[in-house]
Model the fold of this input.
Amino acid sequence: MNRIINLGVIPAIAALVFFLITCSNENPIELPNNGGKIDSSSSISDVSSSSPPVQGELSSSSEQESELSSSSTEPDSSDSGQEASSSSDEGLSSADTQDDSSSSGASASSADAASSSGGATSSAEVATSSSSSTSSLGSSSSRAQTSSSSRATSSSSLRSSSSTASSSSVRSSSSVAAVPPVNTPKENFTQTVGGVSFDMIYIPGGTFTIGCESGNCPSDTKAVSGVEVSSYFIAKTEVKNGLWKAVMGSEIPPPQYASNTGSATHITWYDAMEFACKLSNMTGRKYHMTTEAEWEYAAKKHKDKLSDIGGGSGVSGEEWAYNSWNSTHMGGKDPVGPGSGQHTQKTRRDANGYSDNITARLIRSIEGIGPALRLAVSADMDYPPNYVSPCDLHAPKLEGEPANSYRDPRWVTGSDARWTTNGTIAIGNLDLRVWEDGTAQLTAGYGSSRATVGQWFTSNNIAFVFVPNSGAITKYLYIFLDDKQGSLISDKSFTSGGYIGRIEKQSASSVAKPTVADLKTGEALAKAQATFETEFKMVDMTNIPASAQKQDARLIDGPGKGWFQNNTSAGGVHHYRKDVDADEFRFTVNQNNGRTMLANGKWFTVNNTFLRVVHSKGYTADYLYAVDADGTFYHNSFMGYERGDFRMFKKETNGDAWPKTTCGNICSEEIPKGLDQSMYSSQGATGKSTFVPAPCPAGGCK
Done:
């Protein structure tokens, strides 16, 4: 049983969970905290060598590096005009914020995962270290929406090099012979690719304390001592636009600065992996994204040899780290974080705003854009232990949306597989077996270990409904990332048999299919439900008829109230607010005295399941949503910058309920009506809805 939350720590976890959910979802945006700042960088002046160049026009140098010159300046992606656009996650960037939906964790209390303040349960903001709710995927190659618009990578491909043999340009025939680490002198070197050079600094391995050791420590940076790091080379600078173009053959999709000397931002985690893979094939060296331990060790022990660390660079100083998000640091030797290579929220590093100028760390949706990339090469091995090769990591894809039916075939597991929790992005338990004939066996809810037998059906390929032999049904709203991964929210709290988080289809010990009396077809089972007409009726989701467009009254917050996700108790600075009136829906992420619009405009719901918001200028935002018995409002996002990420909200009265020290009046007052559309409207596929409706079956949707 995958028990994600420990009963003994439920009260504390509740707050953390909610925060994490919030945070990971916050990935989309980051309010600039250093507006108009420019960042300086330059090349090393003393990198030369008498030894002949290696593959990729490599030259070595002595171990001494000169201080960076500030002759060249590069606009920082956190500059004005991006209002948090730099980070593609809806969470404003800040060293304190973990924009990860994992923050929405669960409060183990009856308030379940949404505190009375800001969407978390009363005891906390439902943000748990283990429950980061969602995040966003995408790679340069996957920015164009696939037919299924899914941007996730199958977990199996993430874990197996053989499963990624398909990946395109990554295995170009132009690859050069591999350069074993033992053939690289342990000294600084310069690598040149396509006429563009960058410097790699040798970092002797050692032991250090990862995390915040003194001063005003941000959340989720509790120090862990005795962390060992093997010797490696680290790039002196973040990857620049000029190098990106030399390797990838094209510029990063807009918005992006044109300067070749500017840091390459607006890239997703998968973009960074594709870049590292192609660069490795071009040079023969196994370049990789720095692990969090490599990044921090260099920043603490060798900061004077590096640029773009401290003082702000890239997206307010943010860089991707190869580390699946967890609210606590991992110790040991060459740690790579939990669930290495899994499709889940990742870690970004931000060196701004703290006394040591190093230990800030935040959550980032895997499909979020914004962080820059710093490269590394291991000095004594191909990759750190458990590090999945960048050439084996690809954005997930679905091959097509099956026809709208009352039995979505993607759910079928048979006797030898199951749907279960995926990584740390989960609140509650889930163990689901599904058979083609309609039989289902479910173990769900916090602390539950008893399997319940029943039947199942689906509605419009977005709602999975478990109908037990006795008792109340459970409705799970789902977004598939690929054929083996998905994201769920439910209409029950995790303490009442519901589940919120990522799921994965896994092989499992074979079980006999249970016997269920009076098995019905999916359609018959759906129509047998008392709420069929309002909850489960088949709808043409391609051209949603006016008769199906309703406004779920539960979402309208009423005068002087709003829906909040408050991350204060978990140390976050990103907070979310929704104001829902009959004439307009508004949704913002807030930090300090700044707000970033995520979705606003006319709105409607379908089957108390699907929510669409359309701005007067045409920008469309799509979500799945649920409201549980405790009044918690959950949503799961189809938006490209956070596909599959979820958040949790509680209705609060305007005024003092929101701490003005963290977001001023923008949290405690109504969001003004009639504002311009979200900044994501100009970000191409990354900013758009990825919802792909299930095509109607032969004979039409009926």
